[in-house]
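re the bet — no i am not wrong, look at it urself. input seq straight from the record:
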Amino acid sequence: MRKVLIKIAFFLGLILIAGPVLASGTGLVDSTYKYAWSDKMGWINFGCSNCGVAVSGSAVTGYAWSENYGWINLTGVSNDGAGVLSGYAWGEDCGWIDFSGVSINGSGNLVGATTGDAAGIINFSCDNCTVKVDWNASSGGGVVSTGSGPPSGSYSVFIHPSLVNSSIVTLSISANPALPLMAISNTPDFEGVVQEPFSIKRNWDLCPSGCKDTTKAFTVYVKFYNSSGYSPEVISAQVVLDNKAPEIAVSRIKPFKDGEPVVISGSTEAYSDLTFSYYGRYGLSQAGDNGEWKANLGVLPPGDYELVITATDLAKNSATSTVFFTVLA
């Protein structure tokens, strides 16, 4: 009895050590489509270099690969000869996966979806996921096509300037390699967003429902699509919308005496540029980090004066206030 147990243990050890590498010799992989999508697992690759997935009239063999859940052994999946699959695949980190909802159509595309308690739903029929094999009911056998699944490369999106006073901003988008489609969203879930042709410049509305008198940070999300899927990495850019005009406060103004320098002070939004117009003259100043400002108008002749103060904040919003003061004789 002990010898039997040792032999069984040794046999299981060979299986575990071999893993997916032994399956890599089951057939050559061509270059078409290879990715399915799971609501829990993300992208699943059926055509990686060590996957070795092969389809016959009776079975599916080899391994699929998930970046998040590791190898999935397809050996328990059966084909009834007409392309209707059944049976279970197994992954150490995702458990049993039921293939009874999947079939192979006349074009060699896997259609339908699998189910699994831990794996969730693995979809072969969504808009951006396709697994294609060169097998159909009349061909007798084949291997999974590799295709150009989720694109990899360098992707970026910029919004300049990073502080704006309009909800309409210009996105500068880069994708290398260039891809035909993209999607843009104000939320990370891309709910309700449709694909559109790729463009390196795109005007975008941060507040489609309207933003008034707002100072708020926004994030714009972008992802790219090709014929078999989109980039698993969503890129984003941040911008601050400030379309609220600065408020101008003026300290109490007393009557100034003849020969006394006229100094007027107040507060507004931090770092705002200020322009003072009075008695046919102009002056410039800037508010400090606490928003305080001071205007020294010098010694003025006796009389009544009108001072027009214009404040322009960092987002280029402007406000104007008029104050009156008197220089006594």
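see?? The mean pLDDT is 80. told u. also Residues 2-18 form the longest helix (17 residues). so pay up
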